[in-house]
Amino acid sequence: MIQLWVGIALLTLLALSFIFVPFIQAKKAQSTAINTDRTRKNIEIFEERLSELEAERVAGNLQQEDYEELKLELEKNLLEDASDEVLPITSSPIGSKQLIIVVLMALLIPVTAFGLYFQHGSARQLQMSMAHPDQLRFENGEQPTVEEAIQMLLNELEENPGNAEGWYILATTYMNLGEFDKGVASFKQVLDVLPEDATQYVGVMGQYAQGLYFAKGGKMDEEVRQQIKLTLDREPLEVTALGLLGIDAFEQNRLEDAVGFWRKALQNAEPGAADSLKAGIQRALEQLALQGKPVPDVPELATAGIQLSVSIDPQLGDNIAADQVVFVFAKPVGGRMPVAAVRLTVGELPTTISLDDSMAMTPQAKLSLHPNVEIGARISMSGQPQAASGDLQSATVLVAVKEVSEPVNLVIDRIVD
């Protein structure tokens, strides 16, 4: 099995490079000054949050295992941000359709592919196919070429033509390499051998429609429309089919329709695909505004946020230096690590601020993921985020994240024992 996964990993990396390299090359001519500033800011945020984690660990509020996990997550986020910022902000000639299609392909196809494999995998059959003499050398660390990796899949499918996940991996590989006709044929094989009651069946139907669309040069002809209809008849919220309808509407400047299709798809989208759909919706709304047309309200684009009014009791304020650090935070009920936090100084108070998902410590610990949180504010005499004797703090307020409409009033009026 090791050599199969080597082949799949290589195929995935190479396939994605075929998609994204042209977009990267198309943008290299522009200045990267903006990205330098963003990188510097990301590093500053990383260092600040890392110091907060270290302080929590030293204070005994955070176990070593949790500390290492959160630290690793912060490092991964920093690397991901750095990777994203290699592409400069520019007015590229790349079209909206190309951008949306690339993102949808990158996010939707791999997630479904691996879900299909683990649900209906035939690990034993795949392992048998690895017994071919030509493939044994991969066990010694030699990497297969893309042609060899594809041949590994073809060998398996020749011996086991009913292997649905094998056909699916082959189909998505061909699609990512731009060999759309072969991808369509392989998707058809998946539909022929996969049980219709399988949970992934309708998703493959949507990707088959997408393959037809690409194979026809991005043309929404009758065959593509019919496949989309068959898919949506089975599952009205199938994300790929709705995404295609949105792309087609966007290209025809039917922006309101595009927004409608993508909003509907959001109801059934995984987090990564949802981000892509929201980006498409935002772009369509911007185009509507530029054309002077009414811009509909899209609540799905709103992120969770809590407005706070933070102040100090006048009886305490006179004795505190203006540069003393103030931490304002939201924590899960009964939890220790904040899901959103902001750092201020006493000199900035009183003030009104907002806590939202942009202030999350990690992507998995967002304000919007919690129905209720505890809000508080604390003046740290040591400058560290953990509470210590002598610090000044507010009362803790329990807030329903999605129901709060008025600013939450936090008054720092008590001393930490």
From TrEMBL:
Alphabetical UniProt keywords: Coiled coil, Cytochrome c-type biogenesis, Membrane, Repeat, TPR repeat, Transmembrane, Transmembrane helix
InterPro entries: C-type_cytochrome_biogenesis (IPR051263), Cyt_c_biogenesis_CcmI (IPR017560), Ig_CycH (IPR056412), TPR-like_helical_dom_sf (IPR011990), TPR_CcmH_CycH (IPR056413), TPR_rpt (IPR019734)
Transcription is among the record's keywords: no
Stretches forming TPR repeats: 164-197
GO biological process, one term: cytochrome complex assembly
Coiled coil spans: 36-63
Protein name: Cytochrome c-type biogenesis protein CcmH
